[in-house]
Amino acid sequence: MSVHKAYNFRIHPTKKQTELINKTFGCSRFVFNRFLAEWNDTYQETGKGLTYHACSSGLPFLKNEYEWLKEVDSIALQSSLKNLADAFSRFFKKQTKAPRFKSKKNNVQSYKTKYTNGNIAVVGNKIKLPKLGLVRFAKSRDVRGRIINVTIRRNASGKYFVSILAETEVSERPKTHTSIGIDLGIEAFAILSDGQKIDNNKFTAKMEKKLKREQKKLARRALNAKKNGINLFEAKNYQKQKRKVARLHEKVMNQREDFLNKLSTITRRQAKNATSCGNACMTNILLAPTTISSVSKT
Q1: Cβ of 189: how many Cβ atoms within 10 Å?
Q2: Domain annotation covers residue 57
Q3: Quick one: 264 and 152 in the same domain?
Q4: What is the pLDDT of residue 247?
Q5: Average pLDDT over every residue of 46-55
Q6: How far is CA 297 from the centre of its chain?
Q7: Domain that includes residue 268, residue range
Q8: Domain boundary among 147, 169, 191
Q9: DSSP for 121-175?
Q10: Is the pLDDT of residue 253 over 80?
Q11: Burial class of residue 24, CB neighbours in 10 A (0-12, 13-18, 19+)
């Protein structure tokens, strides 16, 4: 059967490629904010917003007005309009709040581009991306199937990643008609129905002391910057410490993700038919102060 599969890799762009990636972030953000403002103005005047097609038809005029928009991937700019239309669609369905303007001060930035005419390809330990050319990446596994789109992302600690969405054929695993139950614990993370106990590694608790120390440093540098009348976005020491704190949070997140991925693999292999989680007295258990602290520090 055909499925969509996502691959996530860290990329190591050159200085020139990094500048172009950051410029694409900025241009995508500019287009999003510009048409969000027009959308809001139109809604206030007429009671109706714009459509994706109306925004898309206005994009060429905007590119003629601002020539620097032509220097980045055009599909990335179209994708930002699609994101805006999707955001309004979710808002009108009461699934999310109204779209907000994007800020360049947010360290986390991304843009999406689509595969067309061979503009995206994996070549050895490099990936070919529109406008960027070949970018070196940490290839941990092969990308199988037809590439649909990619998302370039910069995380809070300043690292760059590429997420590849591909359509691939997979064979369905044969059912073994076995199942396994999982009971959430307090001392242990979980207990399986076969008696196996999964320990609670408490990744956050192990990093808590270091996190508190670095966060205090961050608060002091923010205070010093404000005393000196320096904008936090331009305060180099503050931004440097902010990235350091982000790296610590990232480390905890990666440890949790690795732990949960391994746990899900174990349970999936043991029970290819069904997995069930016990919910007896779960409300009372989760509301207990000791449990909240224990689970949150997993």
Answers
A1: 20
A2: yes
A3: no
A4: 86
A5: 91
A6: 22
A7: 179-296
A8: 169
A9: EEETTEEEETTTEEEEE---S---SEEEEEEEEE-TTS-EEEEEEEEEE-PPPPP
A10: yes
A11: buried
Final residue belonging to a domain, choices 169, 203, 227: 169
Q: What is the mean pLDDT of the chain?
A: 85
Report residue 280's pLDDT band, with 50, 70 and 90 as the boundaries.
Answer: very low
Q: Is residue 38 part of a domain?
A: yes
Q: Is the pLDDT of residue 289 over 70?
A: no
Is there a domain that residue 174 lies in? Answer: no
Q: What is the pLDDT of residues 122-169, one digit of tens each?
A: 999 999 999 999 999 999 899 999 999 999 999 988 999 999 999 998
- Report residue 26 as tokens: 């900025």
Whole-number Å distance between alpha carbons of 189 and 68 = 53
Q: How far apart are CA 294 and CA 284, in angstroms?
A: 14
Residues 139 and 240 in one domain: no
Kindly state whether residues 71 and 139 are assigned to the same domain: yes
Calculate ∠ Cα 158-161-162, nearest 5°.
155
- Are residue 187 and residue 155 in the same domain, yes or no? no
Q: What is the pTM of this model?
A: 0.75
Count structural domains, the chain: 2
Which amino acid, residue 233? F
More confident residue, 31 or 226: 31
